[in-house]
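Dear Dr. L.,

I hope this message finds you well. Following up on our conversation about the binding site, I have prepared a predicted three-dimensional model of the protein together with alpha-D-glucopyranose. For your records, I am including the exact sequence and ligand specification that went into the calculation, followed by the structure tokens. Please feel free to forward this to your student if that is useful.
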Amino acid sequence: MFKKMFYLSGILLFAAILLLNGCGQQPRLTFMVGGAPNELAFFESLLASFTAETGVEVTLIRQSTDSTQRKQGILLALRGQRPDPDVMLLDVAWIGQMAASKWLEPLDSYEIRRQDFFTSIIELADTYENQLIGLPLYIDGGLLYYRRDLLDKHGYQNPPQTWGELRQMAEQILPAEREQNPNFWGHVWQGAQYEGLICNALEFFTSAGGGFFVGTATPVIDQPANIKALRYMSELIHKQPISPPNTFTDMKEEEVRMNFHNGNALFERNWPYAWGLHNAADSPVRGKVGIAPLPGFTPGKGASTLGGWHIVMSRFSDMKPEAAALIKYLTSTTVQKQLSLKLGWNPGRTDVYDDADVLAANPALKDLRQVFNNAVPRPIIPYYSNVSQILQKHISATLANRATPEESLKNAQNEVLELMKSYGIK
Ligand code: GLC
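The resulting structure of the complex is given below.
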């Protein structure tokens, strides 16, 4: 009896090993990436071409669009030192933390030409202890999308230059447009409690002359400029509201985009990816959308947060040469050009910006290059994610009308100082 059970469990174990090894097949390269459904579909097609060219099979591990959730998934794999994913995309906001944990494979020995990419971005985000640890697949910056047709209809030739103008235009246009569409709002933006809120807050704060940190070790969160900006953000939702009441509960990139896409908003704050989708053949707002730098509290003082996603190789990958080949493929001129043409993204490679096809398809790119060049990075510190969590919690308290801007920012400042003390940072 025992002998039989022993024999049986042996067979089962053998079967399980076969199954785990894909019945003796080659291990597959894995690429972890998140995004909107059209972006993931596009990655699938790129991977199919990569396989056709190289014979290397790749599995796409899908993630959501939410940066905070994406980070959790990646942390699980890297902390566990798992061989998969081999290649992944990291947000510019937290690539520093991953590099400092020594989880990323240096790319210098794989014949990658760092000079083909924006030098400032490579220095800011992709270099750690003089080693190249990633490449910018694309660069993001916050932009203002507006309904050109509606501004025209109500007598405005240009998009707002200041936050005051934005409110005034929305207040004038809202009542008339609501008669036809009761779901119509003035301005939609990322106000939910997640990383996107910090990107939006940094834009409002900087455009009032404020910001989160001076240098990397001095938090200046409760300064008057930030208080003024946070009051403005809260009033968008609560005082003569021009932003919807679910701004602080639900509004992330895709919720915001869909709202504007379906014709329910006059202004939208979003990243460049929304441009291609708003102008897609089946888009209700196709041809009616304008794009501009974000307003400031005074003209010309608008600010855009630096975002973007960087392609890296895990140090624990068991297919490093194949992983390097995939990184080179996705950052090649041909693919970077397609990312721009098909998705409206801003490539990390500089040569694509001089390409005639790219400029013809996206003329706004030329004017907006300035916005990306001046984009404001989030603090580049290894404990940034903890700072972000603190800021998210307190800024959200004001947006939910549970605390005044003064209280929230004072609390955030104190908590960040406590955190720094606990890390021994003076
Ligand atoms: C975009 C940006 C990224 C940012 C995120 C916030 O994906 O590229 O840098 O952190 O939005 O939601």
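In brief: Confidence is low (pLDDT under 50) at residues 10-23.

With kind regards,
A. P.
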